[in-house]
Amino acid sequence: MLAFGSPSSNARTSSTCHTLLRELQQIWTDIGESEADKDRMLLELERECMEVYRRKVEEAANTKSRLHQSVAAKEAELATLMAALGEHNINSPIQSEKMSASLKEQLGLIMPLVDDLKAKKEERVKQFADIKAQIEKITSEISGCCNIVNSLSTLNLEEHDLSTRKLSECQSHLHALQKEKSVRIQRVLDSVNEVHTLCGVLGLDFGETVSNVHPSLHETSLGQYTNISDSTLEGLDQAILKLKTERKVRYQKLKDVAGSLFELWNLMDTTREERRKLSRIISFLDISESKVVETGALTLEVIQQVSAEVERLTKLKASRMKELVMKRRAELEDLCYKTHILPDSSTAADKSSAMIDSGLVDPCELLANIEAQINKTKDEALSRKEIMDKIERWLSSCDEENWLEDYNLDHTRYSGGRGAHINLKRAERARITVTKIPGMVDSLINRTLAWEDENQKLFLYDGVRLVSILEDYKVSRHQKEEEKKRARDQKKLQDMLLAEKESIYGSRPSPRRSNSFRKNGYHTNGNGSVTPSPRRNSVGCATPELQTPRSYSGRQNTYFKEMRRLSTVPLNFVAMAKEDTMSFSSIGGSEPESPPQG
Questions:
Q1: What is the Cα–Cα distance from 225 to 89, expressed in whole angstroms?
Q2: Rounded to a whole number, what is the largest CA-CA distance in the chain?
Q3: In whole angstroms, what is the distance from residue 234 CA to residue 249 CA?
Q4: Does the keyword Protein transport apply (predicted)?
Q5: In angstroms, rounded to a whole number, what is the distance separating the alpha carbons of residues 340 and 537?
Q6: Would you give the DSSP letter of residue 531?
Q7: CA nearest neighbour of 544 among 466, 453, 477
Q8: Cα 227 to Cα 189: distance, rounded to the nearest angstrom
Q9: What are the strands, taking DSSP E only, across 426-521?
Q10: What is the reported pLDDT for 193?
Q11: CB half-sphere exposure, 282, CA atoms < 13 A
Q12: CB hemisphere CA count around 159 (13 angstroms)
């Protein structure tokens, strides 16, 4: 019979079998079995033992096969887990101990690794599921879709890749989405705040405005988040654009109404107390429309309030129109007087009053006409400013010239009286100024002609062409210079005749008596007769004198009227020469003393 096992166990089994076999043979002997029966029964017994051994061998082989399959399955599972988790750095201990270890030992070695990787996989799956859930949630918020698909069901499609690299990619994607979400939330908050400000300025319902874009922007219930989708952002942008457009329209409307209000205030001489009621409401109109953020600044009630005030003042203006027309006409005349421009006679005070009383003209149209004339006069005065400044300097120089002439006729100017040195300094400055007058007049003429060419009209000064006035002034000034020269020549001739008389008669008038006559405007000649002392003559006399230009600027064109009279009545130099000859023959060659020379 076959025996397996260790030597000691085999020995025990063999001895037991021999003992049992001897006992069986003794029993067969006692029974009286034949040898053939004994051999047959022994053969059957051996056959039955072989069947038992064979069955045990088959069972052992099956067990070994199953262990091989289990080891292979665990190795395959281990490899799958390692590939899914990206754990390529783990070396299987089976490869190193496969030749020496039994199947059960191999299975015992691989099972802990598989269990450890399974636990790690479950943890990794949870991480992926959490990240995927957050990604899908944020994606749904951004897209505006509220249906969130189960993360685990979508994750099963990607369980083959649970590596840390894939986990890092998902985390990076999540961080990008979280950043975009933060940006969108900030954009939504900024837009909502701007909508709130604009609604406050316009007096609109903020809740209704943002709820029309998306309900979550005004009231967020439990489990509902503020919508940050593209459609919401676009809706907010459109709402802001619409509100800004409305703000611009209302601002312009209020500005137009306020402009009319300011005109009516100025026209009606509205008191400061009455203006204060609405001044605060429209005080922000000085800034640009985009900077208006005051609550209630552009509500319909404000616009209606200002419009009602304009309507009230307009009705009040109609009843006071004649008074307003007279007032504006007076302003026009005052402006024309200051700028030396003749006002339009079509809207004169008496004519305007008569037309309003007769109903021939609408007072509003007449007032608008006067307003247009005022604006036209202001524009023309602005263009004439440079020339008017030159005229003022010319007139001032003429005043200095007249003062210098009076100063030169003052025989006490060199006395040591009070203020004599001040007048002396002024005389020096006046002499310098007088030398500049001809050039000043020529420059003024050239500038006036250039202005006339530029504006295609004549430059009128109180209704008279300025160039004509200046030309008349030049002629008159030349005549005056000629008269001064003739007076100097006459004085030299008189001095010569006086010197000749003195050489013949040896006598000379007493200076004291001569001075006393001179004080009364007379002087003595050589034979004792008395003749008037030369004085400045008026314009109508033989020696013309220029009127003081400053007298024009202070008393309504006296000077330029005199210039126009001079231009129409020329001086007769022949007559003046005859008068001078008669004067010389009457005095018999005598001449007064020369005034003290400065």
A1: 44
A2: 231
A3: 22
A4: no
A5: 30
A6: E
A7: 477
A8: 11
A9: 460-461, 464-465
A10: 92
A11: 26
A12: 15
Closest by CA to 225, choosing from 194, 184, 166, 259, is: 184
209, 356, 523 from 244: Cα distances, Å:
13, 47, 94
Compute the distance between CA of residue 578 and CA of residue 474 in angstroms, rounded to an integer: 25
Sign of CA dihedral 403, 408, 410, 415: positive
Per-residue tokens: 444: 């003024």
Long-range contacts of 355-359 (CB under 8 A, 24+ apart): 356/321, 356/322, 356/325, 357/322
Read off the tokens for 169: 């990619």
pLDDT the model gives residue 92: 52
Distance (Å, rounded) from C-alpha 519 to C-alpha 532?
A: 11
Contacts of 552 (CB under 8 A, 6+ apart): 395, 558, 559, 560
Residues of the chain with pLDDT under 70: 1-13, 88-100, 145-160, 219-225, 318, 416, 506-598
Residue 379's pLDDT is 92
CB-based contact 278:261 (threshold 8 Å): yes
Nearest to 592 by CA among 486, 520, 487, 495: 495
Return the DSSP state at 148: P
pLDDT at 505: 76
Q: Could you tell me which of 457, 470, 498, 474 has the C-alpha nearest to residue 588?
A: 498
CA distance 547 to 557: 11
What are the distances in angstroms from CA 15 to CA 24, 38, 53, 220, 484? Answer: 14, 20, 19, 93, 184
Residue at token pair 């969108």: 184
**Residue 154 CB partners (closer than 8 Å, separation 6+):** 132
Q: Measured between alpha carbons, how far is 27 from 41 in angstroms, rounded to an integer? A: 13
Length, in residues, of the chain = 598
Distance separating alpha carbons of residues 446 and 444, to the nearest angstrom: 6
Q: Give φ, ψ of 271 to 5 degrees.
A: -70, 160
Residue 478 structure tokens: 């030349």
Cα angle 262, 265, 266 (rounded to 5 degrees) comes to 90
Q: Show the tokens assigned to 446.
A: 């050239």
Distance CA 335, CA 340 (A): 8
Please provide residue 224's backbone torsions phi and psi, each rounded to the nearest 5 degrees.
Answer: -110, 135
